[in-house]
Structures are given as C-alpha cells and as structure tokens.
Amino acid sequence: MSNLQTAIEGLIDVFHSYSGKEGDKYKLSKAELKNLLQGELADFLAATKDPMVVEKIMADLDENQDGQVDFQEFVLLVAVLTVACNEFFEDCHKSDMKSKEGGCSSKDKV
Predict the structure, then answer these.
(1) Which of 5, 12, 31, 94 matches a 20 to 30 Å C-alpha distance to 51?
(2) Under DSSP, is residue 27 helix (H, G, I), strand (E, B) or coil?
C-alpha cells in the first residue's frame, strides 16, 4: 500500500476508534473529540495552554451545529493542521537556507 493510502486508512481508523462510544457511531461527541485530541494530538493541546481549546475546536468544526463532529468535519481539522505544519516546515527550511545552520525538526512543529 502507498504512503497516502496508509495515511488515509490511518485517519479513518483513528476517527472510528474514538467515535461511537457515546451515541452515533459515525460521529464524535464533545467528550469523544476531547479524548481524540488528548490521545492523538496531545502536543498541540499542550502548546495552546488555552483551557477552552476543545470547546473552540468543537465550535469551529461543527459546521452543521448538531453538537457532534462527523468524519467530514474531522477531516477539515486534519487538513488545517497539515497545512499549518507544512507552512511551518517551509518557513523553517527558508530560514535554514539563509542561516545554513539547520535546526528545524518534526519535534518543533506548530
């Protein structure tokens, strides 16, 4: 399987490993979203230091205002984070080229 196919399968597996523990098995409740974020994106949550970050993410993702996040809404979160990480690495690479010191790593992510 290709890297992209593996990544897509991984996204689907992650979503469904957290969804359906409360109510609809094809959607994330607020508690399920919080568990997913803590389990899969703990570094991002820790970096924000905002106690309302889960509520803000839920409000931003829940486009249809049903109080849950479906797979399509979840993919939007992944896309936004992926773009942000890509921009970070592009900026880091540009500054490395100017300074020729190196130093950006995946641990320095957003």
Answers:
(1) 12
(2) strand
